[in-house]
Write a structure and sequence with these properties.
The chain is of the alpha+beta class. The chain has 2 domains: about 240 residues, 2-Layer Sandwich (BirA Bifunctional Protein, domain 2); about 100 residues, Anticodon-binding domain (Rossmann fold, 3-Layer(aba) Sandwich), CATH 3.40.50. Helix content is about 40%, strand content about 20%. The strands form 3 sheets. Strands 1-5-6-11-10-9-7-8 form an 8-stranded mixed β-sheet. Strands 13-12-14-15-16 form a 5-stranded mixed β-sheet, sandwiched between helices. It has a 3-stranded antiparallel β-sheet with strand order 2-4-3. Strand 3 and strand 4 form a beta hairpin. It binds one RNA strand of 76 nucleotides through helix 3, strand 6, strand 10, strand 11 and helix 12.
Length: about 425
RNA sequence: GCGGGCGUCGCCAAGUGGUUAAGGCAGCGGCUUGUGGCGCCGCUAUUCGGGGGUUCGAAUCCCCUCGCUCGCCCCA
């Protein structure tokens, strides 16, 4: 291997993959348009402070996963690790926040300094939506439904919607106090990771993978019991509304989103067809974020889909084929090459896609490539055609003998050819 | 940051101490100055991720290093 390689965790999207990406992106645009969401595009680079304040100093993302550096003016800059903080900053800066509720979507690269594995890269892409200015139960459910319908609409199966409520900041504070003191009494029975988290991020202990700790936690105080009546009723309303819409879900009380700004509704859509990183869509409500970043108190809710994970599912569950040209233009000889160029422009102007063979190699080779190109038709231009002022059209797809007697056309009759092709394809 | 697996041609690979490193795909040329997935013939790695060591002899054994990959952590 030479040393000109992409950086670790930064991957190229080769022609074999871009078909799937385009498929998802165009489906997303249609889907979001129907949901009356507008696209927003924000810079990839932001001030470090935005993420530190928005995501939370104590989180792993801010603590050890950010691509942060000083620019030439000694400002601390960070490649965005997620989209929400930037979107909030943008609507505050532009004043959109004062123009009524906002319904937005975005799509773009995000960066986190982690060890790559299946379904995780250092540069990855998130497709997300954010609604600002709504606090109703219905707005939560609409956001979930938009995500659910999007993934279902793509044709994916084996999806599970997992749901939890984190309550208000107040609820979580109360729970944290009870939970930590309960754990401190049993600290000796905790695994090492959980002991560490007791001081850094105790709520995440609920997510432990350690079997012993899991058993221990069965008797632990749970967040649900610390929710105030209002929070609890709200969560029940969410569930009832999802049932009304016939969107299946599973309550997962261990679901604790890793970013500080979440409150009330938290959800993930997972798939069995991913590796250990099973979450394809994650989101929730974050009523405190806008004010945290200096704006007016504004309720907000959204989600993000990991594009690479979605691609994994699409490639596994769907069968997309790369596009092929309509016509492969075989030509040999300098003059034929010039005519081929001329002809290709006329055809392309009529929305017919054409691939020209520029190799000037033996006709037999060019035919082989024509076949492999996947084109339905081949046009042959050589000395004979030049002399006789015509070209030969052959069907590649229908390989019958009659095609060798395909009609001939004068150069001046390109329109006839176009009509003919349109009728045949 | 911590574990496991793996690096032989553009791609997929066989080869586990002994003379010139299989094979397949793709590519190029020919059989066939101009007609189709096939067939046949020929060409394409002085070298096995990189560096050092052991040995008469290393792709094969040892050490170091780089990279990829899967998992932990965490998240999309």
């Amino acid at each position: 291997m030479n040393n000109l390689q992409s950086l670790r965790g930064m991957v190229d999207l080769l022609p074999a993959q871009t078909m799937s990406w385009q498929f998802i992106e165009s489906f997303a645009r249609k889907h979001f348009r129907k949901a009356s969401l507008e696209e927003i595009r924000t810079p990839i680079l932001e001030s470090t402070e935005l993420f530190a304040r928005g995501i939370g100093e104590g989180t792993d993302v801010v603590g050890k996963e950010m691509y942060t550096f000083l620019d030439r003016g000694d400002r601390s800059c960070t490649l965005r690790p997620e989209g929400t903080a930037s979107v909030v900053r943008s609507i505050l800066q532009s004043g959109l926040i004062n123009q009524g509720p906002q319904r937005l979507w975005y799509n773009g690269p995000m960066f986190r300094y982690e060890r790559p594995q299946a379904g995780r890269q250092r540069q990855f892409h998130q497709l997300g939506i954010e609604l600002f200015g709504f606090d109703s139960v219905q707005s939560d459910v609409e956001v979930i439904a938009i995500g659910w319908d999007f993934l279902k609409g793509l044709g994916l199966k084996d999806l599970t919607l997992e749901l939890n409520s984190l309550g208000t900041n107040e609820d979580r504070k109360n729970f944290r106090t009870r939970f930590v003191s309960w754990l401190e009494d049993r600290i000796a029975f905790l695994d090492k990771d959980s002991q560490d988290r007791l001081t850094t991020n105790p709520l995440r202990i609920l997510d432990t993978k350690n079997e012993e700790t899991k058993k221990l936690l069965l008797d632990a105080p749970c967040l649900q019991n610390s929710l105030c009546t209002k929070s609890r009723e709200r969560f029940e309303d969410i569930q009832a509304t999802l049932k009304f819409l016939e969107i299946p879900f599973k309550i997962n009380n261990e679901l604790v989103r890793g970013l500080d700004y979440y409150s009330h509704t938290a959800f993930e859509i997972t798939s069995d067809n991913l590796g250990s990183q099973a979450t394809v869509c994650g989101g929730g409500r974050y009523d405190g974020l806008v004010s945290e970043l200096g704006g007016p108190e504004t309720p907000a809710i959204g989600w993000a889909i990991g594009m690479e994970r979605l691609i994994l599912l699409i490639e596994k569950e769907l069968n997309l084929v790369n596009s092929t040209p309509d016509i492969y233009l075989i030509n040999k000889g300098n003059q034929a090459g010039e005519y081929a160029l001329f002809l290709s422009r006329a055809l392309r102007q009529s929305d017919i896609s054409v691939e020209i063979d520029h190799t000037d190699s033996a006709f037999s080779k060019q035919f082989k490539r024509a076949y492999r190109s996947g084109a339905n038709w081949a046009i042959v231009l050589g000395d004979n055609e030049i002399v006789e002022q015509r070209f030969t059209l052959k069907s590649i797809k229908e390989k019958s003998d009659s095609n060798s007697k395909s009609p001939l056309f004068l150069f001046s009759q390109i329109e006839k050819l176009i009509t003919y092709l349109n009728e045949r394809t």
